[in-house]
User: Fold this.
Amino acid sequence: MRKRAMGTAAHLAALSALAVAVTACGGGDKTAPSAAPTGSSSATAPAAQGGKLVIWADPNRVKALKPFAEQFGTENGVTVEVKEISKDNQQVFLTASQQGSGPDIMVGAHDWIGNLVQNGAIDPVNLTEEQKAAFPEIAMKAVTFNGQVYAAPYAVENIALIRNTDLAPDAPATIEDLVAKGKALKAAGKVKEVLCLPVAQKGDAFHVYPIFASGGGALFGTTSTGDPDPKKVLVGSADSVKAFDRLKELGEKGDGALKTSITNENYIATFAAKKCAFLISGPWAMGDVKKGGFPYDITAVPSFKGGKPATPFVGVQSFFVAAKGKNKTLAQEFVANYVTNKDVAKALYEADPRPPALTAALQEVQASDADAGKFMEAGKSGFPMPAIPEMAAIWEPFGIAEAAVVKGGDAAKSAAAAQKAIDSSLKN
Amino acid sequence: MAHDAHAAADTRRGPRPRREVTTAFVVSRVAVLAVAAALLLYAAPPLAADGSWVSLTLLCAASAGIAYLYLTRRFVPAKYLIPGTVCLLAFQVFPVLYTVSTAFTNFGDGHRGDKPAAVTAIETGSVRQAPGSPEYALTAAVRDGELVFLLVDPKTKQVQAGSGQGLAPVSGAQVGVTGKVLRAPGFTVLKAPEAAARGQEISKLAVPTRGGVIKANGLSRAVEGRAALVYDSSCDCVNGEGGPWAADETRGYFVNARGDHLAQGWQVNVGFGNFTRVVTDPTISGYFLGVFGWNLFFALASAGGTFVLGMAVALALHHPRMRGTKVYRIALILPYAMPSFAMLLVWRDMFNRDFGLINQLFGTNVDWLGQSGTARAAVILVNLWLGFPYMFLVTTGALQAIPRELTEAASIDGASPWYGFRKVTLPLLLVALTPLLISSFAFNFNNFNAIQLTSEGGPFPAESPQVGATDLLITYTFRLAFGAGGAQFGFAAAISVFIFALVAVISAVAFRRTRKQEEVYA
Assistant:
């Protein structure tokens, strides 16, 4: 009997959840504007005064944000809730926003912007000229989409070449130098791998991109404003084929610098275990690298001899103002005037050591942590990861083409097949 | 008729024996009713606030119905049937209907909301600061109960009052160092918490100017902006930059003459569009047979392989002379008891060519997940390892239900152990286990994790990067629907409907055959 009661309760819960879901969907179109104020006024009446500001962030950042959120809350007489979202943050945010249960402020990577904008999930953020000038140009460029600033940046990250200076004292000037040194160390039995760069069975466009770009390859053409142009996909172009050929030369049938057995799971650990002298990775690797207990240095990813610059992708962690938030004025206030605050930037850096976007904060951090500045320096020639929604169509076909040539496949065929796959998915 | 007969039978038997009222009975009743009431109390206010009277009525009717059902002594069968029926509706019928209805829309990234939401997003997203206009320092204030903006031009320090009617100069205002107005005659300046409390009003207030509108940007700044794109309902189009952009109700986008569309779209009904895409898209139909064939093989090999291995082990342990069966059983259950997510990832790393345990153990240099043949063998092997303990468990149970006399009789009659197994034990086992085998097949047919967490569908031939050697229909279509073009829920739903139909047909045929078998052996 008790068991049945519990079953019934579950059914009832499901039924009522259904009822609520149905009304939420049905009411969304016509009542949305009027529903928001009534809902929140009833919620705020018993609360202090100004209602509630809800911030969603990933687990690393929640702790760092809390003190500042509380300070903001007391200054403005509101309760600020910082909620932890641990997985699929972008999708969770989009779905919740759509239902009207999303946050007022979201923390995420700048390359979400295209998708968030096309779903009407975020509002532009208005920063003053002075505030904009406090960030490096690349950070502002990253958060600008269709000529609008959509987020306040707080951390800038890019990949660089990290080397074990015990094994390789000098920074290689070219990729050829790097490979020669790596092979010599391997032949001498000092290391197991020439280069620790994740490829895996499905390729890794993000990590290989600087080398691909140095070989002359490109993903997109550029529009008149200098943004990536989704109408001009260049993965299959003649220049890109040449770049894929360079990757093939570095691959398993060539120099053995790029291998599908090196994956995202093992590449940092292998470097930290001194099994390779060179690692291409970002600030997130430094925790493990330091545990390795050997001297290291961070420099830009070198380019091919006589090749184009090896430009890494630059990712910018940012704060977004949710378009469907209930407290947009406060959200704007927080994002525009609080996130651009040096102390907040430093606290976020201490919670998770990614170089702060704010130039003033970076300078202070650099004094105690040289790595941050070195990464920033290595990313100077980089460009923001394309934020256009079409980028989603690139990653996988590009990665598969990369893995294919690394295994010794034909560059022209792989590039053409990738281009075809990208074109057909962009058509839909 | 039947009811009457029942009533007549009752009267004949005299007063019906009262059912004993136990504590459990009361507690469970109270619990059911309390939950029903709690749900009503929880769901009613938001529904009422939302004005969703239909849903509210339905909710009340459902709650009342449940309350009545469990308070009355009548309708005993319904007391048992209703929970199951509600469960069936909520967890089976509704998701299926929802999936099917989604399949007829373009629901997905860029088409999540409705048209008014898209229009709002387009207009808000196109607001740019008017060139040359100042960044006003904003102070929210109240004049005669009405919210006004006190705007200070940072260069000229001139103070203006902005309201819904427009801008008007303010004289005698005192401006602080931060640029905020401290006090002004005729206005009550709002302190930060007071202003925050009126956040909704502040974000709504738009002060019209010649070039556009001044809107608050947070609590301390305001800028004059102009929307570059404005929706015009008379032509159902968006005017402005690059436009006019006419609404295209078949695609759910605003499109211009050049065929470009604005980023923000809305959800529309696309009819059978998603289904025809599944059938006609060469990247799907061209690979369908190959993927389907492997998928079938994978599901059969997984279900069959785990069954044969599990049964063999169970038979070995079932032997009367077997000692230490408990220890063996515990050891055999282990793979089943471990979280399969983690185990799949561990197996993936064990198959790594240079760093994996398998190559190191055997001294080989096989790129297990990098070649189609070995990758297929690897995923089946992993699935076998994960799945056989379950089969071992159920076979052990079924074996204990088969009387030993039957096999003993067979051996007395001179049957060899193999013959006895084949003619007596196996058929009796299959009667009990065939439904489980069919469900195991259906589960493995859609065993997304087993592929996605190990080989991710790979290896992918360089010539056709869309489909990998170990791709199941579900992993393959998952990539199509969620990989390249962002999330396309409508399309994914259409694919699910196809896969559902496939699995349903296969299972139906199999169950029909089972019934025949049961008729023979039961």
